[in-house]
Every structure is written in C-alpha cells, then in structure tokens.
Design goal:
The chain is of the alpha+beta class. The protein is built from 6 helices and 10 strands; from the N terminus they run αββββααβββαβαββα. The two termini are 29 Å apart.
C-alpha cells in the first residue's frame, strides 16, 4: 500500500491528513489500533484490512473514527441510552419511545447478536467527553425472505447536526465490507424520516424499493461492495491528482 492508498483510506474514514495516526487510551486498555504513519507499510483494504479496527481490546472497542469510539453495549449503558431511545422526538418514527425496561431489552438483544453473529448495534462514545451519545452498528435482518445486513443508528438529540451519525454509520458500513465481507449493506428508513435518509445519502447509499416491514412502509437504501470500492477508487484518484498538482506547483516554484 503506497502513501496515496493510505491517504485515501484516511479520507474514507474521516481521519485528519498530515499527522501520524496514534493509538489512544480507552478505559483500562489501549485502543490497540494499528499504527499508521506515512513512512510505514500498511495493508491494502482489499486484503482484509483491519485498519482502525480492534474487536478484542479489554474495553470492548470495535471501531474508532476521528471523533468517536464504537464499543459493545452492556447493561451499564442503560442510563446513557435512555435519553436517546426514550426521547419522544428522537423516536418519532418508531411506534413509541422506549421505557427503561425496553432499553434494557434492547441492550440484551444486541449482546445476543454479538454472541450469535459477531456484530450488532454498538455504543457510540464521544471521544472529547467519554459519554455515550447513541448507538450505531450492523444487524442481520429478514427482509422479504432474504437475510440482509443493515446499518442502524440512533443519536441523542443534543448531538444532532454535527455529522456524528454519518461518521459512525460510514465506519460501520466499511466494517461490513472489509471485515464481514458483506455483498451489500442496506438501511431501511421510513419515507418521512428525512434526517436518516440524508445520513444514508451522504454515505453514498442509493434509494431503492418501498417495502412494508414491521408494520410500516420503509425505503430500502443500499450500497454494494463494488460501489463502495468504486467510491474508494475515485477518492484515491482525487488524492493522486491533488498530489500531482502540488508537485507541479513545487517544480514551478523551484
């Protein structure tokens, strides 16, 4: 993997360019992230890359982005998720806001998913404060007699409009392709839920058919593995063009 590949991967994952990527401490253990520096080799994403990924750390961390950490949920997160899943406005597109017991049942369901499939919805932690601000992850869903991997996300209302949902969902989609080898990742969204639709669209997902699922109409947004890697290729070419332009500018200056 040359430095252009590395920068393109960083662009895809929303990491800042121009600084070494350093591990951070989370709780009692290190994040364990692979050290990435522009003068060191790295694995190409097509070779089962585990960049920005660690599922075995003591803290239960699964993914890390520039501003967020995603880790496995535990019942200790009930108080953190209740303001998210119990908020009538945040849950307006669900049958009802969750009670405390329902939040605990939701967490129990994710813990079961971790054991059965190796993934589920994970706690979203804001690095700057260490607090739980929502959940995001991948869930195996039955959609019209087909098994599909869906990316889902819920965010506390006081953290809306900061790009956190897009950032977390992008990392999860990437995880679905690079780690789970998914053929596609979908997102089922109520047609009237414009904010969630914008998150899907910002992650290059395209709107498909309308399905009746769990008692409501849902639009199926999706992105295939091929489409995701095509997005990576375009970003790589964009970085390469900028590098070539910078080199021309330097030669002109010299």
């Amino acid at each position: 993997m040359d430095w252009l590949d590395l920068i393109a991967a960083a662009l895809e994952c929303d990491w800042p360019i121009g600084l070494p990527f350093l591990p951070r401490e989370h709780g009692s253990g290190s994040s364990g992230l692979i050290l990435l520096r522009l003068n060191e080799p790295a694995v190409h994403p097509n070779e089962k890359s585990e960049l920005f990924l660690n599922q075995g750390s003591p803290s239960g961390m699964v993914l890390e982005t520039q501003r967020l950490v995603l880790r496995q949920l535990t019942l200790k997160d009930t108080d953190g998720l209740l303001p998210v899943l119990g908020d009538p406005e945040a849950m307006i597109y669900y049958p009802h806001p969750f009670s405390r017991d329902e939040v605990e049942s939701f967490i129990d369901k994710q813990i079961t998913r971790y054991a059965e499939t190796g993934h589920g919805l994970w706690a979203v932690i804001l690095k700057s404060t260490g607090e739980v601000i929502g959940d995001c992850g991948l869930a195996l869903q039955d959609v019209e007699d087909r098994k599909e991997i869906e990316v889902g996300y819920h965010l506390r209302r006081d953290h809306w409009h900061n790009g956190y949902a897009t950032e977390a969902a992008r990392a999860c989609i990437r995880h679905g392709f690079y780690k789970l080898r998914a053929r596609q990742v979908i997102c089922m969204i109520r047609p009237e839920n414009r904010p969630s639709r914008r998150v899907a669209e910002r992650n290059n997902m395209t709107m498909g058919r309308l399905v009746f699922w769990h008692g409501f109409n849902h639009l199926i947004y999706s992105i295939s593995r091929a489409e995701w890697f095509e997005t990576f290729r375009r970003k790589r070419e964009s970085v390469q063009r900028r590098a070539e332009d910078d080199e021309k500018d330097l030669l002109t200056y010299l």
